[in-house]
């Protein structure tokens, strides 16, 4: 059964809802409507793995290729127990619009395996990774579809996938992004999504007439994106007052010591709870804190009609994909909360993935300073374009972002004669 939020809407239908509104606003040619809305290809495969216990376990794997009008398919692969076709379909669509919004020459795709990587050994993870690529290798390629890390995957898994593809098709580092630097990865790829969250948060703060030193931040989700966003915002002068993970949250109105908190999380069973420099609170309490910026950086549907009325933050920056349900989004808009949508806020990953892909094809490395400078330029330009359209058309930032993205994909479709 597909997962539904409290309004009964699956994640793919939520993305379709925003698409329909934006398509209507730009008077999208009706002939393009179905073509741009629906994915080009969907694959579901069995992944048989002999576990360390000797038991054979069958996992389900997915890859959805949504649209390639503007370039090769691009999107992450997540390992998570909740992975299903509906979520992968929605995320693939979101990648199409995200790539178009920030103007990188990629289409959109997404993949995943329904498994729990936290309960698997390194050997089991490697078997799943290699088997997944064996089942998908004919529909991916450095000029066809380029996977990347996502929830539950990392640079090591990308290295295994790159190697497995190379065994059958010849070595090419451009087959995946998010690889270890020693294998051709970008030195800034791991922190790119969090850095993009930081850049877009600072842009929104500036538009509010505030300085970073005046700003308090709460973050729901303290994985890769949440940690990098927290550290980078703190470096800019912001005060990180609360951090939450799947187990709970910790709060300190004077600001958390992030270095100590990260060490505590590593030693304490991967949870921030019980940190001596803060007070344990629930995640619902974190979402309702009186802070300036709230960053949901975990999974989909975190803010819904039940807790959205309690949100007191002035700005929400979507570090995760789809952290607001339809009703949650509507309530926040009515309450005057500024939302920087996922389609822009967490696009740092795909931008730096693009840089890594280009470097691999050129067999030439860029310096970190150059990568971060180009990342900032693309996000800053995209943010300004989104805000301009939102004001001109009197729509939310999210709908403005979709309007820009759909227009670009539609134009590419028209010019290609598809």
Q: Which characteristics define this entry?
A:
5-stranded mixed sheet; 7-stranded mixed sheet; 12 strands; Rossmann fold; 418 residues; alpha/beta
What would your notes on this structure say?
The chain has 418 residues and is of the alpha/beta class. It has 2 domains: 39-99 and 106-183, 3-Layer(aba) Sandwich (Rossmann fold); 186-418, Rossmann fold. Helix content is 45%, strand content 16%. The protein has 14 helices and 12 strands. It has helices at residues 11-25, 30-37, 85-101, 122-136, 155-169, 192-207, 224-235, 258-267, 283-287, 326-334, 342-345, 348-362, 368-393, 397-416; strands spanning 41-50, 56-67, 73-79, 108-113, 145-149, 216-220, 239-244, 249-251, 279-281, 293-296, 315-317, 338-340. The strands form 2 sheets. Strands 9-8-7-6-10-11-12 form a 7-stranded mixed β-sheet, sandwiched between helices. Strands 1-2-4-3-5 form a 5-stranded mixed β-sheet. β1 (41-50) and β2 form a beta hairpin. α1 crosses α14 (397-416), α3 packs across α14 and α4 (122-136) packs across α5 (155-169). The longest helix is centred in the last third of the chain and has 26 residues, at 368-393. The protein is globular and about 55 Å long. The model has no long low-confidence stretch (mean pLDDT 94).
């Amino acid at each position: 059964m597909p997962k539904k939020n409290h309004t009964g809407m699956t994640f793919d239908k939520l993305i379709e809802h925003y698409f329909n509104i934006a398509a209507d606003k730009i008077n999208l040619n009706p002939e393009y409507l179905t073509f741009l809305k629906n994915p080009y290809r969907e694959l579901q495969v069995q992944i048989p793995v002999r576990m360390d216990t000797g038991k054979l376990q069958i996992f389900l794997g997915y890859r959805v290729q949504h649209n390639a009008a503007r370039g090769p398919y691009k999107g992450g692969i997540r390992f998570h127990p909740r992975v299903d076709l509906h979520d992968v379909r929605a995320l693939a669509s979101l990648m199409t619009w995200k790539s178009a919004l920030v103007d990188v020459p990629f289409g959109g795709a997404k993949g995943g395996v329904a498994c729990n990587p936290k309960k698997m050994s390194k050997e089991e993870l490697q078997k799943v990774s290699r088997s997944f690529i064996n089942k998908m290798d004919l529909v991916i390629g450095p000029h066809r579809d380029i996977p990347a890390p996502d929830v539950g995957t990392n640079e090591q898994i990308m290295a295994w996938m790159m190697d497995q593809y190379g065994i059958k098709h010849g070595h090419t580092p451009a087959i995946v992004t998010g690889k270890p630097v020693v294998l051709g990865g970008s030195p800034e790829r791991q922190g790119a999504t969090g850095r993009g969250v930081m850049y877009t948060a600072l842009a929104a703060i500036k538009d509010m007439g505030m300085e970073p030193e005046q700003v308090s931040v709460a973050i729901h989700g303290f994985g890769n994106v949440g940690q990098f966003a927290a550290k980078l915002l703190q470096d800019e002068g912001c005060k990180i007052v609360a951090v939450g993970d799947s187990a709970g949250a910790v709060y300190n109105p004077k600001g958390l010591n992030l270095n100590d908190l990260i060490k505590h999380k590593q030693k304490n069973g991967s949870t921030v709870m019980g940190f001596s420099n803060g007070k344990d609170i629930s995640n619902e309490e974190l979402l309702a804190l009186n802070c300036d910026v709230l960053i949901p950086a975990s999974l989909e549907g975190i803010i819904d009609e039940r807790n959205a009325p309690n949100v007191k933050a002035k700005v929400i920056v979507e570090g995760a994909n789809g952290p607001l349900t339809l009703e949650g989004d509507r309530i926040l808009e009515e309450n005057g909360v500024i939302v920087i949508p996922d389609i822009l806020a967490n696009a740092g990953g795909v931008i730096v993935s693009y840089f890594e892909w280009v470097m691999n094809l050129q067999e030439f490395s860029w310096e970190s300073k150059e990568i971060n400078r180009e990342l900032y330029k693309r996000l800053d330009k995209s943010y300004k374009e989104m805000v301009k359209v939102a004001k001109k058309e009197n729509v939310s930032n999210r709908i403005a972002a979709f309007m820009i993205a759909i227009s670009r994909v539609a134009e590419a479709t028209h010019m290609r004669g598809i």
